[in-house]
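Re: that chain you flagged

S.,

Sorry for the slow reply, it's been a week of failed gels. I finally had a moment to sit down with the sequence you sent. For the record, here it is as I used it:
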Amino acid sequence: MELELLRISTEPQSTNGILFNKLSDGSRKFLCYIIEDTYRKEKVMHETRVPANRYQIKFRKVGGFNSRYTERYKDKANFHHGMLELQNVENENMSFKYVLLHCGNSSKSSSGCLITTFSQESNVMKPEGWGSYSRVAYEYVYPIISKPLLNGEKVWINIINFEDHAPLSKKASDDVMLTSVIDRKMDKIIAELSGIKQTISQHNII
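Prediction finished late last night. Pasting the C-alpha cells below so you have them in one place:
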C-alpha cells in the first residue's frame, strides 16, 4: 500500500497537508487532512515536523498512546491493533522516534506526529492550524491502513513538500501535475468531503 502526504501550507507554527491513498493505476483517493508541526532546519523537541521522505508504517503495540487507544476502542470489535508508526525517521540533521498517526486538533497535539482531521482551517489565519472531526477521520483512515498490515502487506507513506516543487509545466508527469488535473482532483475531494459531512450530520457524529 502506498500513501501520499502532500504538504500544502507551511507556516511558522504548523503545516497543513492532505493524505491520499495512491492507487495501483496512479490515481489518488482522498483520505483525510493532516496537521503537523512546522519545518525547522534544526530539530526543536515537540515543535518540528519530520523530514519529507518515504517511510514504512508498522504497528506500535506498546507505549502510552497504544494503552489509551486500546482503552478507547475496547468496545469497538477488532478495531485497534496498535498505533500506526513511521519507521526509521531521520536525515543527516535530525532523527525522530514514535512518529504516529493520531487524533488532535492542531499542531499543539503533535510532537512530530501526523494529526488526522476531516476539516482544515487556514494556518495563515490560525497559526497552529485547526481541524475538526479528528476522531471521525482517524476511525475512517485507521482500518484502511491497518487492513493490509494485518494481511502481511507493507505500507509506505511518501511525504512530499508540495510547496517546494518546481513550477507546473505544460506536460504532466509522475511528479508534476497539470493545473487542470489538480482542479479535477480537488473537485472530486470536495464532493467526497460533502458526502462525509452529510453522513456525519445524519448520524449526529461530533
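What I noticed first: Residues 166-177 have pLDDT under 50 and may be disordered.

Talk soon,
D.
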